[in-house]
């Protein structure tokens, strides 16, 4: 029986997911946003997290990046209504193994949970992710998210306990990876993938 935490700002949705899984899995807790999800993972040490993407405060994708820094082997499924390729790529880049659309969840979710727990990627049938999408490290995602929030290199450095020079290095590396030619394009990339 696997230990799972669910995050969704709509409690009725989270409870529905819990009901769907409780026969075979142990649902440890339900979080209403990204910040609470991070705290609950620290407290309960689950094997799997199922998170919505659009939540108040920290988005689900930003939470995934934060969780992968805390617990590298944590398995994550993003359960969302966003079927745009950019969101799926953002979730996978952040470290999610599964990406399931809410309207396909009753059919897909149990399969997704079993696949992801086995270490395999699972995407809803109607979601396309390009293999060529760049994979950013958890650190790069953290830097990108903070820069996209309008923070200066010094503020990002203070928040992540690294030097401003290291922030600039990460920024340059990210821009090269995603082929962004300006800070504006960098921010647009972060916004289009739900990182902010």
From TrEMBL:
It holds the Pfam family Response_reg. One of its GO terms (molecular function) is DNA binding. It comes from the Bacteria. The keyword Coiled coil does not apply. Residues 3-117 form the Response regulatory domain. Keywords: DNA-binding, Phosphoprotein. InterPro entries: CheY-like_superfamily, NreC/VraR/RcsB-like_REC, Sig_transdc_resp-reg_C-effctor, Sig_transdc_resp-reg_receiver, Tscrpt_reg_LuxR_C, WalR-like, WH-like_DNA-bd_sf. GO terms for biological process: phosphorelay signal transduction system; regulation of DNA-templated transcription. SUPFAM superfamilies: C-terminal effector domain of the bipartite response regulators, CheY-like. Residues 129-194 form the HTH luxR-type domain. The modification 4-aspartylphosphate is found at residue 52. The keyword DNA-binding applies. This is Response regulator containing a CheY-like receiver domain and an HTH DNA-binding domain.
